[in-house]
């Protein structure tokens, strides 16, 4: 992925650079290098915004939330997951909306804000039921 990023930078292909940053972020996340993952996902987010790519922006926010969880930065994760939720609603993607609610429920549990956690878990449940997702 690093070679790919280098090549697409040389070619000046910004859209491909965005995808390369996302791939590098996901790889670093899987390797447990969460700070590096965050740096790559922030680059991905910037390029997604540059292109108005709301779906890529939504994925970047979700990935940023996930990485911050592993660094114990639950409040930051919650903010990224809220942005994920907002974009999933704009995109009318109920499955992703449910996923964002689930992530927020878990994050608020980690923050020991149980009332808010319950709210998000209930929203997740309602959407899952609407989608017939057992």
From TrEMBL:
This is GPSM1 protein. SUPFAM superfamilies: TPR-like (SSF48452). The gene is Gpsm1. It comes from Ceyx cyanopectus (Indigo-banded kingfisher). It comes from the Eukaryota. InterPro entries: GPSM, TPR-like_helical_dom_sf, TPR_rpt. Signal peptide: none annotated. GO terms for molecular function: G-protein alpha-subunit binding; GDP-dissociation inhibitor activity. GO terms for biological process: establishment of mitotic spindle orientation. Keywords: Cytoplasm, Repeat, TPR repeat. PROSITE patterns: TPR (PS50005). The keyword Transferase does not apply. One of its GO terms (cellular component) is cell cortex. SMART domains: TPR.
């Amino acid at each position: 992925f690093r070679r790919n990023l280098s090549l697409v930078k040389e070619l000046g292909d910004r859209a491909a650079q965005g995808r390369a940053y996302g791939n590098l972020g996901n790889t670093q996340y899987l390797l447990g290098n969460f700070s590096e993952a965050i740096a790559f996902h922030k680059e991905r987010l910037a390029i997604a915004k540059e292109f108005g790519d709301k779906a890529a922006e939504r994925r970047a926010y979700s990935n940023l939330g996930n990485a911050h969880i592993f660094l114990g930065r639950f409040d930051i994760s919650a903010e990224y997951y809220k942005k994920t939720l907002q974009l999933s609603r704009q995109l009318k993607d109920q499955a992703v909306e449910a996923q964002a609610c689930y992530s927020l429920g878990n994050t608020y549990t980690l923050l020991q804000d149980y009332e808010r956690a319950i709210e998000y878990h209930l929203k997740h449940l309602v959407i899952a039921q609407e989608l017939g997702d057992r």
